[in-house]
Design a protein that fits this description.
It is found in: Cell outer membrane. The chain folds into two domains: about 40 residues; about 250 residues, Porin, CATH 2.40.160.10. It is built from four helices and 19 strands. It has a 16-stranded antiparallel β-barrel with strand order 1-3-4-5-6-7-8-9-10-11-12-13-14-17-18-19.
């Protein structure tokens, strides 16, 4: 009986050892499989910590328009995002991204501007031979050029959104969008996109646009077009531009934008307005010096110019690179904002001087 008990214990021990060995082998196989799975996808957390402190001095007409004697505030443009990709075994590379909006001056300046998904948030596919397609919320092809380089440094409140034409001249970052970006063919590439417009309750509210880029050495030529439809307006915007960056540290950009609004409501006048922007920069050591100018020309209604509808901004900036991922800068701007409905003092256009310092850290 004792021998039988010993043999039973021995058998149990051998069986346990065998099971342990099998379990270890299985865990090893699982670990290899997990590592292979990890190799097929990647993801990252990214973002920017960006803070700007500014003060403004208004002229008398500016005080009347903005109801402010002087102004100082903090612009908190910090944001965070998540993005990744997955190489499918039987398909193209899958790409995705979710990005938050700016924090805003008071934690959430525009209500829900700081929530996830406010900036580029999409799913899509990517291939070396055919480019990239994204579905979701993305920049429109024309606005991508307007935003950069056309609105930097600090030219956006005139060139970007400061125009006076009726309707949605162009979209910026739009949801319900399908966008295709081609690969580069001998220096040439195109971006094409379409989607729903701002009037989501209207079945015919939609937009479409495209941009083309052609690089000749350090110089890139650009052209873009976008159409927006709604029950009130049909807006067409055309853009031509050029930018360059040279090995000696010099760089430049220039754009001309033509906007048209075709009224769809009886008794409403057609409108048009043109705008332009230009900038020059110089990089030396860890410094960048940059100046820019942008202006909206007079608005026209049924071919006639409308008084007090032209805007302009001139800006100068000095930036220092603490690190390739971090900068500090100081900026001075003069903004002249014309508004046909605004009150004026001594026939002056509202204007202000702005002085700011900022820091940005990208991770």
């Amino acid at each position: 009986m004792e021998n039988m008990f010993k043999r039973t214990l021995l058998g149990a021990a051998i069986a346990a050892a065998a099971m342990t060995s099998i379990s270890a082998s299985a865990e090893g196989a699982d670990a290899v499989a997990i590592e292979k799975l990890k190799e097929s996808f990647s993801y990252e957390v990214y973002g920017v910590i960006a803070m700007q402190a500014l003060t403004r001095d208004y002229n008398e007409a500016g005080k009347a328009l903005w109801a402010e004697d002087s102004n100082w505030k903090l612009n908190n443009e910090s944001r965070i995002g998540f993005r990744g990709s997955k190489d499918f075994a039987n398909g193209p590379k899958f790409i995705w991204q979710i990005e938050s909006g700016y924090v805003g001056g008071s934690g959430n300046a525009a209500g829900d501007s700081g929530k996830l998904g406010v900036r580029d948030t999409f799913v899509g596919f990517e291939g070396d031979s055919w480019g990239k397609i994204r579905i979701g919320r993305v920049l429109t092809p024309i606005y991508e050029i307007i935003d950069w380089p056309g609105s930097n440094p600090g030219l956006g409140d005139v060139y970007d959104w400061g125009y006076g034409i009726a309707g949605a001249a162009y979209q910026d970052r739009q949801s319900d969008t399908v966008r295709w970006d081609s690969p580069t063919w001998g220096g040439f590439s195109v971006d094409v996109a379409f989607g729903r417009g701002d009037a989501v309750a209207e079945a015919d509210s939609n937009w479409g646009g495209a941009a083309a880029h052609y690089a000749i050495g350090p110089v890139t030529l650009q052209a873009a077009y976008e159409r927006n439809n709604s029950s009130d307006w049909i807006n067409d915007t055309y853009l031509v531009g050029v930018q360059g960056n040279f090995e000696n540290g010099l760089g430049f950009f220039a754009q001309y934008k033509m906007m048209e609004a075709d009224a769809q409501v009886a008794g409403t006048a057609d409108e048009s307005q043109n705008a332009y922007t230009a900038g020059l920069m110089y990089n030396i050591a860890d410094y960048q010096f940059k100046v820019g100018y942008a202006a909206n020309e007079d608005l026209e209604r049924d071919g006639k110019k409308v008084a007090y509808t032209d805007d302009s901004v001139i800006s100068g900036q000095v930036m220092y690179f603490i690190d390739p991922s971090a900068v500090v800068y100081t900026r001075v701007r003069h903004v002249e904002r014309a508004d046909e409905a605004a009150k004026r003092v001594d026939n002056q256009n509202p204007e202000f001087m702005e002085y700011s310092v900022g820091v940005e850290y990208y991770f």
